Amino acid sequence: MLYKDKRPLIVFIVPSLIILGIFLYYPFIQNIINSFYEISGLAALGGGKYIGIENYKRMFADPGIHQSLKNTLYMMFFAVFFQVGIALVLALMVDSITRGAQFFRTVFFFPVVISATAIGLMFNLFYSYNGGLFNQILLKLGLERVLWLSDELAIYMVSLPVIWQYVGFYFVIILTGLNGIPQDIFEYALLDGVTGVKKTWYISLPLIWDVIKVCLILAITGSLKVFDLPWVVAPNGAPKGLTHFLGTYMYFKTFISQSVGYGAAISVLIVVLGLVVSFTVNKVFKRDTIVY
Amino acid sequence: MNKSSIAFEKQIRKTRFTTVISKIIIYFVLCIWAFTTVYTLFWVVNNSFKDKTVILTDSFSLAVKPILDNYETAFNKLNIGRAYLNSFIISGSTVVLVMVFSGLTAYAMTRYTFRLKNTLYLMFAGSLLFPAFSTIVPIFRMVLQLNLVSHPLGVIIPQTASNLSFAIIVLMGFMSNLPLELEEAAFMEGCNVFDIFFRIILPISKPAFATVAIFTFLWSYNDLFMQMVILRKRETYPICTLLNEISSQFGTDFGLMASAVTIVVLPVLIVYLFLQKNIVKGLTAGAIKG
Amino acid sequence: MRKLLAILLVIAMSISIFSACNKAKTVDDSPTPDISTPQQETEPEKETVVLRTVSMFGGTDPSAADYQQLISNFMKENPHILITDESATADETWKARVTTDFSSGNDPDVVFYFTGADAVQLIETGKVVSIEEIREEYPDYASNITDAAMSFMKEFDGKHYAVPIRGFYEGLFCNTDLFEKYGLDLPTDWEKLEAAVKKFSAEGIVPIAASFSDVPHYWIEHFILAVGGYEDHKINPKDTYPESWAEGLKLFKTFKDMGAFPVDVNATKNDITTNMFYDKQAAMILDGSWIVGGIKDPDTTTVLPVPCAPGGKKDPSDIIGGFSSGFYISKKAWDDPARRDAAVKFVQYMTSNEAIAMFAKVAGAPAADVPTPEGLTAVMEAGIKMGGQAKNIDMPIDSRLSKEAWTYLVSMIGSIADGQVTPEEVLQEVVNKNK
Asked: Which of residues 61-100 of B touch A (CB under 8 A)?
């Protein structure tokens, strides 16, 4: 009834679309065009040589892309299960307590506000082989030193700070969702003997399902774009390019190697991949929306 | 005492023991996580009171004799107050614009059914993925044509665009669960959609808006790349750009960097604490009832 | 409280919009007096010229204060020229900002920027003017710069574009106290270098502080130089690569197997390894003249050329060094008669002997014949001596290779040192990418 008349849509949606269109979609269309050119350096942008789909062909043969793609999928997996997972557990826990809830809400947010440069440096000083904190602790315990950023361990060691830093972000979002559940629903539940884990499983989770779905989409898109923290912890995909993600590899190609056209093609790949995965998540997790 | 409250009382007694155990586990887990997050902030602040030469070798010990040199360098060399104001103007305006546009769009996206809705949703999700590095040149060209280089609006408008999709998607997640009855009732009483949006949706969604505002503020505030490219005059520099001058992203003066991070983080935490008051339990329920 | 916040935000908005109008107004106002005031035609030299300059003397750069001082002196001497300077610390974001400017038509009038591979895109797209072209009109332009310094400014098209002010050298810095402590000779030849590496490694001291993931550049150049000598190092491998390059790169594995580098050499960072050297946890570091300012104990630190490898063609005194940055005048400024003169004046002022002496006193070699600055530390003097004695000085390889080829080579060093790829395979790919 209320939403039969579609005319107000113009006021609601068009302003956003205009802003997005001019300052995001149009620039990105330019980027798509650039991906068909060979452009050496940002200053040469708009010039360059038309090479058709050469940049895309090149991606298939580029081992750097394969490595970053693999790592990005890892990161996506970590982000979905650990980042959103831990955030969900923490949010449910904080939601269930009253004493100290304010404190935890505040301190869990700290890592999100601290710049990647500072967190990256801290982890560098954790991992450093000579005199890093982790190895100092191992030595004190009478154990052998460990090469934390070895070829095998590096991807996990680089993902760790990224995952950890953004738990607070999803925590705040999920907590906001939980707080939106009216209290009377829980009171009725308590009367019916639904408590603890059951309460969480049958009442809280279904009611914040849409919020969790949003978190998943943000985690997926975030891991496809991830750039600054990995770049500080392990520049140039150290060691040996084994920890490159699509985001860092795109930066590397555009700014360090100055292959702007190729970098543009990588960002097209990032967007296409992100759309495919987001679309799938939306389909898989589709449920009837529950209103309170 | 009526019947239901007696049952209520019994239920509580029965679960009291398990509650104590689970409470202990919950607090234990929360404290461990809190330790990692508090330690990081402590590490940064602690190192900001140390000499730059000892940080790489001795960053984990307590600054027993704290020195203020790093802060003195920052405050003497730079106009920090002016930079805070610039940051506030830019990020504050971005937040307001993003809230207005994303609120309207998210509301429409969750309430109306129309043909291009799914396409629109994918377009919003897709724009979350555009790397800033690949759109900066066309954006800069437009800002240049609009004569907004070194002007706050030159940053505010592109930042509004880049945060809009995030805000729309998160707000949609929150709004889709809101009960329709209130809106239907208001409609029956003769309210139009705009009345409903401003009188019902906005008040109930206050916590959601607060959350989105926090993150929009944060992204905009920390967006060094866009600020660096568009703002050229020192007097227009926001705090992050200004401090990047003395502790360049890849620079080596880690003492200055630690103090810079502390200076940068402080206002964000204040904004967070301030907005977070809106994300308090029960507010929503109260709003619906009231 | 929320209302307060809302009010504050609205105020913030209005301030920014208000200042927008304000700005737009001033922009609109400025051209009008030119049309309405006829006396300007009679005294054209009084017309104020606004010159936009960009440099990397910003932030905590040791020359930042001097540079600003020079600008204000220049404006005092030339009251009709107004300099709006946009200097910032040079990093990748800064480079992106400069190149974005050029690609968007916001070209600065004068820019202090890198030469070689970084400058290719500016030269190819005709964004900057060559010194040859400038000299046709201003024969004195950059005439005080020494021929040696100027020779480093020669670009791929044979022309010169940037006017240099100070140069750099690279060398093997050694903590002499550590060599004394373990009874070792300084690495003046290859045997001594290997002996020192083995001894330090056995004693648990990092022989050579280095980071392959961050900046392996110096060792790439010096291993190739140590085997191939000046002549082979100078080659820009377009169709094929010199055999000595592969031999040189093989030394990465030889040295890593000897334990010459930190255990985490593949993933540590330049800041951390440099600090290891400063703190005497490492005995040697191969680096550029820019690190001398950070050396804590200059009296027990010295710098030497990397010795010649067994069977190598290097003259023991040869070093890597040169001039890698300078002042450019943009085509846009040059094509505007009013700004052309102002830009030339500005660059001439900034590259005068007096200015060059000011810039060179911090680090590196001056680009003009100016007296050696006083008050140098022991290691700075050792560096200047090394530069003076060098038979040949060559620019680093990355000044010639295309960015693609060079960054590829850099990214493969870790794998070469671990023996996962052969230098031959990598160099073949470098040649392919170096088009």
From this structure: none
Q: Are A22 and A265 in contact (CB under 8 A)?
A: no
Whether C214 sits inside 8 A of A235 (CB atoms) is yes
Domain count within chain C: 2
Residues 6+ apart with CB under 8 A from B236: B86, B150, B151, B152
In terms of residue numbers, what domain contains C189? 169-321+382-433
Give me the amino acid identity at C298: P
C217: closest CA of chain A, how far (Å):
14
**How far apart are the two ends of chain B, measured CA to CA in Å?**
26
For the segment C164-216, what is each residue's pLDDT rounded down to a tens digit? 998 889 999 999 999 999 999 999 999 999 999 999 999 999 999 999 988 88
Residues C185 and C295 in one domain: yes
Q: Are residues C187 and C227 in the same domain?
A: yes
B156–C16 CB contact, under 8 Å = yes
- A150 alpha-carbon distance from chain centroid: 24
Residue C18's Cβ-count burial label (10 Å; 0-12, 13-18, 19+) is exposed
Closest partner residue to B225 among C19, C93, C103, by Cβ? C93
Asked if B140's CB is within 8 angstroms of C106's CB, the reply is yes
**Do the domain assignments include residue A7?**
no
Residue C365, helix vs strand vs coil: strand
| Cα–Cα distances in angstroms (integers) from residue C192 to residues C179, C183, C189, C195, C196, in the given order | 11, 12, 6, 5, 6
State chain A's maximal CA–CA distance in angstroms. 74
- Identity of the residue in B34, B44, B112 whose CB atom sits nearest the CB atom of A104: B34
Which of B18, B33, B192 to mutate: most A Cβ within 10 Å?
B33
Which of A44, A147, A255 is opposite residue C92, by nearest beta carbon? Answer: A255
Please give, rounded to a whole number of angstroms, the shortest distance from the CA of A57 to a CA of chain C: 16
On whether the CB atoms of residues A259 and A253 are closer than 8 A, the answer is yes
Residue of A148, A234, A241 lying closest to C411 (CB–CB): A241
Q: Compute how many other C-beta atoms are within 10 angstroms of the C-beta atom of residue C137.
A: 11
What is the pairing mode between strands C393-394 and C319-322? parallel
Which pairing describes strands C365-366 and C282-288: parallel, antiparallel, or unpaired?
unpaired
Predicted ipTM of the assembly:
0.89
* Alpha helices by DSSP H, C258-334: 270-278, 331-334
CA distance B17 to B20: 5
Give B92 to chain C, closest Cα distance, Å: 5
Per the omega criterion (within 30 degrees of 0), is the bond before A239 cis?
yes
Residue A238, domain extent: 47-284
Q: C177 and C84, same structural domain?
A: no
Q: CA C400 to CA C216: how far, in whole Å? A: 17
How far is residue A89 CA from its own chain's centroid? 18
How many angstroms separate the CA of residue A125 from the nearest CA in chain B?
Answer: 7
Q: How many CB pairs under 8 A join A and B?
A: 298
Interface contact C121-A240, CB threshold 8 A: no
Q: Are residues C124 and C233 in the same domain?
A: no
pLDDT per residue as tens, chain B (290 positions): 455 566 666 666 666 667 788 889 999 999 999 999 999 999 989 988 988 777 777 778 887 788 888 888 778 777 888 999 999 999 999 999 999 999 999 999 998 888 888 889 989 999 999 988 889 888 998 998 899 988 999 999 999 999 999 999 999 998 887 877 888 888 888 888 888 888 888 888 888 999 999 999 999 998 888 898 899 887 888 988 887 776 553 346 778 888 888 988 888 888 888 888 777 654 444 444 33
Same domain, C316 and C180: yes
Residues of B in contact with A198 (CB under 8 A): none
HSE (CB half, 13 Å, CA atoms) of C119?
29
Query: How far apart (Å, rounded) are the C-alpha atoms in residues A52 and B117?
Result: 33
The CA-based angle B265-C59-C130, given to 5 degrees, is 135
